[in-house]
Design a protein that fits this description.
single chain; alpha/beta; TIM Barrel; 17% strand; eight-stranded parallel barrel
Amino acid sequence: MNALSDLESKAATGVAVTRAEAERVVGCPDLVSVGVLGAMARKAKHGARVTFGRVAIVDNGVAPASRGESGEVRVTGTPGSSEQAIGWTRLAAAFAGDVVLTGFSLADLAAVAGHDHVVLAGLAKALRAAGLRGVADVPVDRLGDDLEEAVRAVIHGGLFVHRATVSQAPFSARIDLIERVVRLQRETGVLRAFAPLPRIDPADAPSTGYDDVKTIVIARLMATSIPHIQVDWALYGPKLAQVAIEYGADDIDAVSPVDIEQMGVRRSPKADIERQIRAAFAEPSERNGRYELVA
């Protein structure tokens, strides 16, 4: 028995914990017990499988030399206008070929559209015509009370919205943001993944490794309606990604699609991510930008 053993039945059966229960997990000093809950919840939803996606980045309209063996091409950067966003998309679509093309932050697209949902839907339609298929991320901390309406607007324009993210948030705000993502999924049902770790660490309140693994666990325990809890390989590296699997993460994003020949086949990005996943006692499976498994 431990301080969290009464929550194990919920974790093992995929039943969402309450906010009060999540706060107990956050306050628990026993990381082993916390990790048990995350691992149980991951296995209840996915068994031993952990997915990963190889992503080629087109940053600020500049494509890399090769898209490699990517399952997704992603447009990044903050466009200054609708015309620039459409131009970057056309360039990226030519580079992507038949690979799924995603791009942009919904917060940035909403800003370009003047936070007018009708204009935002029209922009999404134009981006779709230029070759975009989905919005790359929905940063829930950067979008206001019209979060759900902004998501509906781009869907109306023909783009899919599969991933919620957090741009910047102190540890004290993370349960609030997780609840917001759960509400978004309840209202729209469109999310396939949630990356709960902030992409920018607040300078005045940097998180610790303890904070990060607890965030993964409570995201998995609270957001049971979202299939995948995700960690960014390029942003957080193999060590945290591997530990995150033990604490409930089941998807690794942004693995490089391009092999470095000098490193040899055994050190290729694909071989490396598969080795790291297996070291966490899980089985790797590659997916594409639509979160479909790649044969």
